[in-house]
Amino acid sequence: MKTAVFAGSFDPPTYGHLNIIQRGAGLFDQLIVLIAVNGSKKYLFSEEERLSMMKDLVKDIPNVTVDSCSRLVVDYAREHHAKVLLRGVRNFSDFSYEFDLSLLNKGLAADIETVFLPTDPEYFVMRSSSIKEMAAFGGDISKMVPPSVEQAITQKLQESGQSK
Q1: What would the pLDDT profile of 93-111 be if each residue is shown by its tens digit?
Q2: Please, what is the Cα angle at 59 between 53 and 63, to 5 degrees?
Q3: How many Cα atoms are found within 13 Å in the side-chain-facing hemisphere of 145?
Q4: Which has the closest alpha carbon to 36: 96, 77, 64?
Q5: 24: Cβ–Cβ under 8 A, 6 or more apart, which residues?
Q6: DSSP states of 20-60
């Protein structure tokens, strides 16, 4: 059985992320969507909120599970017998960053491969940070995130006093 791990902060989950997840689910027997937790990063949503949102978004994809971790992704992959790290790329900048990361991961875990999957063209400009900024200024993000995520972003920004 081929298991892959698709790791990211997913703060917030976007249609671009879901595009990679759906396509990745078709390529692997099992796909683990891994909510990466980095203590030095500031997130809009807590680990639990991101985990809950993502679980809800992928609940109808039978071979996809969602988990979280705050350690090296290659260590998590090895513990879960995953031989592939799935990485989505939107553009050359993403590829450059992801390529460097893949070399680092290969040095840490030579038995784990990285597979790059370019996002479908309609999602190539969706950066989570841009979506949060646009939402904070009252912009329409409905084409970028599922309705439940849009609602969560709006509520979170209102609660924190960040919306304009």
Answers
A1: 888 889 999 999 999 999 9
A2: 125
A3: 26
A4: 77
A5: 4, 6, 31, 86, 117
A6: HHHHHHHHSSEEEEEEE--TTS--SS-HHHHHHHHHHHHTT
Question: What are 111-144's pLDDT values in tens digits?
Answer: 999 999 998 877 766 678 888 888 999 999 998 9
Active site residues: 17, 41, 90, 128
Q: 């460097």: which residue's tokens?
A: 100
Length of the chain: 164
Is 105:112 a contact under the CB 8 Å cutoff?
yes
Exposure string over 80-89, b if 16+ CB within 10 A, otherwise e: eebbbbbbbb
- Identify whether the C-beta of residue 87 lies closer than 8 Å to the C-beta of residue 115: yes
pLDDT digits (tens, 9 = 90+) for 16-36: 999 999 999 999 999 999 999
How far apart CA 64 and CA 93 sit, in angstroms, is 28
Are the CB atoms for 52 and 33 separated by under 8 Å?
Answer: no
Is 56 within 8 Å of 152 (Cβ atoms)?
no
Tell me if 138 sits within 8 A of 27, measured CB to CB: no
3-state secondary structure of 116: strand
Q: Which amino acid is at 7?
A: A
